[in-house]
Design a protein that fits this description.
Bound molecules: zinc ion
Strand order of the largest sheet: 2-3-4-5-6
Structural class: alpha+beta
Number of strands: 7
Length: 164
């Protein structure tokens, strides 16, 4: 979506709101495709004494896979975005400034990189996920599986010493 900025560029105190959705269902990360549901963005561009500031909130429902137990789960993510827009750099170079080309702003070009940067690379269905049994693959969140404890277990190591 393109946002027309001419009015807000020329008028200190002006504000142009926006509200849009991005279909990012094709976007793929090494760990999966999290955006099965469209990402919503709402915010505005404000001219404060000649300085243009974009403020936005991105709301996503992420479809994730647990790194430990491989369960699919969903998680809400809210990503705040704030940056200064300028038509040209005025002396001080600043990474936080987005350089405008013309008087339209392609919202996806500004907002989607901010969303991608905010993505976590580690995913757990819950903080204390017990994962899968290394022997039988049973999901240990659903209860114990009946396999003997792993080789390294101290109690078994002690027992083994008593064997002939
Ligand atoms: Zn899990
Ligand atoms: Zn098991």
């Amino acid at each position: 979506m393109k946002l027309a900025l001419r009015d807000v560029i020329e008028q200190p105190g002006a504000r142009v709101p926006f509200c849009c959705e991005f279909d990012l269902s094709d976007m793929e990360f090494p760990w999966g495709r999290p955006f099965r549901v469209p990402v919503r963005a709402r915010g505005s561009v404000t001219n404060t004494a000649g300085v243009l500031t974009l403020t936005a909130a991105l709301a996503a429902t992420l479809s994730l896979t647990c790194d430990r137990c491989a369960a699919a789960y969903e998680q809400k993510a809210d990503v705040p975005v704030e940056m200064v827009l300028a038509e040209r750099l005025a002396g001080d170079e600043d990474d936080e400034i987005y350089l405008l080309t013309g008087d339209e702003l392609a919202l996806d070009e500004v907002l989607i990189p901010a969303l991608v940067l905010a993505m976590e690379t580690k995913h757990l269905c819950r903080e204390d996920c017990r994962g899968l049994c290394p022997r039988c693959g049973h999901n240990l969140n659903e209860g114990p599986c009946g396999c003997p404890p792993p080789e390294g277990d101290a109690r078994w190591a002690a027992l083994r010493q008593w064997r002939p």
